[in-house]
Design goal:
Order of helices and strands: HHHHEEEHEHH
CATH class of the largest domain: Alpha Beta
Oligomer: single chain
Largest sheet: 4 strands, mixed
Number of domains: 2
Number of strands: 4
Distance between the termini: 64 Å
Shape: extended
CATH superfamily of the largest domain: VSR Endonuclease
CATH topology of the largest domain: Endonuclease, Chain A
CATH architecture of the largest domain: 3-Layer(aba) Sandwich
Strand content: 15-25%
Helix content: 55-70%
Number of helices: 7
Length: 200
């Protein structure tokens, strides 16, 4: 086999490698695009095309998911807390998918006892990522539902100090922040869990 034949074979191999790489890149691109459907995607219209048996199971799953969502916001005391809980539920799975060894438990209106005092918090998030553990309290401060006097503000600051000294991370969000961008608030809270911090 002469040098010209070797060079020709090398060129063919390179061409095949390029075609193979382009094919893989195109497939990856299609997979990523399928994960992000357009906002105007009409799933109801698409559901009408399903086989009746498939549609029955599909509708049952939707009903079950809706039931769980309603139950999850049942203990919330205000619309902003309901928005925050829905956002937490929406985002939690995305963050858990980032690790093979983690868990996130979200409780509403949880009562925390410190010495002889009891404090009720809007949300308590107990999370574990590997060996790291986090105890995060999220408070939703709405003007309508949490009007504060000077005395109440002082009481809240003392409460936050005691919770912090007990190892809790206390995060406060205004009603406007949650109302305008509940998913952004939830991502900020859950994103902290995957940063450095927390108890080893």
């Amino acid at each position: 086999m002469n040098n010209e034949t070797l060079e020709e074979k090398s060129d063919i191999e390179k061409m095949l490698e390029n075609v193979s790489r382009e094919f893989e890149e195109e497939n990856l691109k299609k997979e990523k695009e399928s994960e992000f459907l357009p906002l105007n995607f009409d799933w109801r219209h698409e559901a009408e095309k399903l086989d009746p048996r498939v549609r029955q199971i599909f509708d049952d799953m939707l009903d079950e998911y809706a039931r769980k969502l309603i139950i999850s916001i049942n203990f919330c005391e205000s619309p902003i807390e309901q928005l925050m809980m829905l956002a937490f539920r929406s985002q939690r799975g995305n963050y858990l998918a980032l690790t093979d060894d983690g868990e996130i438990k979200i409780s509403q209106q949880e009562e925390i006892k410190i010495d002889k005092e009891k404090f009720r918090v809007d949300f308590l998030i107990q999370a574990r990522v590997g060996k790291r553990r986090h105890k995060i309290i999220v408070e939703c401060d709405g003007h309508i539902f949490h009007e504060k006097t000077k005395e109440q503000a002082m009481k809240d600051k003392r409460r936050a100090r005691l919770l912090t000294l007990e190892g809790y991370i206390v995060l406060n969000y205004t009603g406007s922040e949650i109302w305008n961008n509940p998913f952004g608030c939830a991502r900020e809270v859950l994103g902290f869990i995957f940063k450095d911090g927390g108890e080893k």
